[in-house]
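Residues pack. One example:


***
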Amino acid sequence: MTRCRSRRAGPALQGSSEVAQSSPFFGNSALPLLRTLTSLSFPTLYLIAGLFGVIFGSFLNVCIVRLPRRESIVRPASHCPSCLKPIRWYDNIPVLSYLILGGKCRFCRCKISLLYPLVEIITACIFALAVAESTSLGAFLKVAAFAMLMIVLIFTDFRDRLLPHSVTIFGIVLGLALSFAIPVTDPLLEWVFGRMGMTLPAPLSSFLGAVSGGVFGAGLLYGVAWLLRRAGNPSKEYLGFGDVMLMFLVGVFWGIPLTYLTILLGSLVGTLVAVVFILFNRKFRNYSWPYGSFLGAAAIYVSLGGQTLLLWYLSWRGFH
C-alpha cells in the first residue's frame, strides 16, 4: 500500500518511530510494528482501529454486565442470561452474530439486549476517531484506554446507577503510570512553577500535572455536592462518591484545564437533558439521573478534541 501524505486525515501514527525511540513506554521492540503501521494508508488504519474496537467492545460488555454484580469477568464463559447455556464462538462474533441471530438467543430465543452491539459499535467509532485525532501511537493508546474505562462507567451508571471502584481505582493507577511516559500538559501548573523560578524534569512535571488534575476534579465535584446538601435537602444524595472518583480518574489522565471542561460540559448537557424530559413528563422530576454517564460522555468528547475546545473556551472568555 502507498503511504498517505495528508497531514490532517488521521495523524495518529505520524512520528511514531521517533516516539518509540525516545520513550521507555515503547522501547525498541515496538519499532518493527510501528514501521508497519506507518506504511499503511489511513483508511486501512481506521478499519484496523475499528476492528480492534468491536473486539474490545465485546469485552467491555462483560465488564458492564458483571462488575456491578461483583462477578468475575473471566469465569464463567459468556452465556445466555435467560437459559444460561454457553454461547458458542460463532455466536459471539461482535455485532455480526447479533445481526445473524436477529437479536435472539440461538437456544431459548429470548431477546438479546441491544446494549451489546451498541457498546461494540461505539467503541469501534471511538477507536477510529482516536486514530484521526492522536499525534502518536502513545497518544492513541492513552485515548483508547481512557475511552474504554469511560464506556464501562457510562453504561454501569446508566443501567445500575453504579460507578464500580474497581474500574475507577484501576484507571487512576493507570493514568498516573502513563503520565511518566505520555505527558499530561497543564499550562496552569507550569505557570505556577515558572513564577516560582522552578524548572522540573518533564516526567515529574507530567506526574504532578496528573495528580493536581485528579485532586482538582475530585475536589471540585465534592465541593459542589457539599454545597448542594447544605443548600437543599441534607438527606438527599445529589452526587455520589462514585462521581467524585470518576472525576479523579479524568483528572489524572488530562490535567486541570480539560478536567474543568469535562465538568462544565457534562453538567451543561446533563441539565439540558433533564430539563427537556421534565418539561415533557413531570414524572421525571424525581428521576435519579445518571450524572456519571454525562460526565463520562463529556470526558470522551474532551479527550478527542479537548485542546481545540479549550482554546475556543479561553477565546470566548477573553483570554488570548
Notes: Residues 163-320 form one domain. Residues 1-12, 14-31 have pLDDT under 50 and may be disordered.
